[in-house]
Design goal:
This protein is of the alpha+beta class. The chain is 52% helix and 16% strand. It has a seven-stranded mixed β-sheet with strand order 2-4-3-1-5-6-7, sandwiched between helices.
Length: 245
């Protein structure tokens, strides 16, 4: 029993730290939390090596950090606690048939929007949570369907200008705000939707679909890379390829 006790404590500690980092992923607090984890590891190292002065300094720094986090990140903490009861600690990936249905509906919607000369911006969550961005829009939490996507992007709709976010195989929110890329080399032929897609792709691993109402084409953005002038089939196949990475 004595041998297993340290192992159990390590597993529990690792799980708690992982859940805290995942909990704040996608918010501005995540970088600070990662820094605190580094300081914690340094503190344990200094303690192990018997470096008393450095250990004392880090102890004082931890006390200040806790107060700073409570003050600076009060909104994120409040929102995170509100979500805690709604989020499953263990989430499962979508099955292949669920991905097939999802991509078929998105492809159908993209094709219809291009035909009708209507622009759209659709982000599909991969590994990095998009919760912080979905909270900037209107909550929908509905099954994905081509008709619903096309309805959301109907001209003059209140949600027409924002981004649509798909999480866990469902349309979670629409009218969402995405960060604009600051890349000065991006061609001026690309408008706000493309800049927003690139901006989001630089902060997350989301798969972002952009439909241009001017050029009536489909683009896919992933990890800062822009795949443009895609057909519906090319878009679906590219997404399937990127999902496996």
């Amino acid at each position: 029993m004595f041998i297993w006790r340290p192992l159990v404590e390590i597993v529990i500690l690792w799980f708690v730290i992982y859940q805290i980092l995942y909990f704040f992923e996608g918010t501005r607090a995540r970088h600070v939390l990662r820094g605190i984890v580094v300081l914690l590891l340094a503190f344990l190292l200094f303690q192990k090596l018997g470096l008393g002065v450095l250990e004392w300094l880090l102890t004082k720094l931890f006390g200040i950090s806790v107060i700073a986090i409570l003050v600076i990140f009060h909104p994120e903490i409040r929102q995170g606690l509100a979500r805690l009861g709604r989020r499953h600690l263990f989430t499962s990936a979508l099955r292949q048939e669920e991905w097939d249905y999802l991509l078929a509906q998105i492809g159908k919607a993209a094709e219809g929007l291009c035909k009708d000369k209507i622009g759209a911006l659709i982000a599909i969550e991969k590994n990095d949570p998009l919760t912080a961005y979905s909270e900037s829009g209107a909550l929908i939490d509905s099954r994905v369907s081509a008709d619903l996507i096309q309805t959301i992007y109907t001209p003059n709709s209140l949600l027409h200008d924002g981004g649509l976010i798909i999480q866990h195989g469902r349309i979670m929110a629409a009218g969402c705000l995405f960060p604009l890329t600051e890349n000065p080399d991006l061609s001026r032929i690309f408008g706000t939707r493309h800049r927003a897609a690139l901006g989001l792709s630089q902060e997350t691993d989301a798969l972002i679909i952009v439909i241009s109402e001017e050029r009536q084409d489909i683009s896919l953005v992933y990890r800062g890379k822009l795949f443009k002038d895609l057909s519906k089939e090319e878009m679906v196949n590219k997404i399937k390829e990127l999902i496996k990475e």
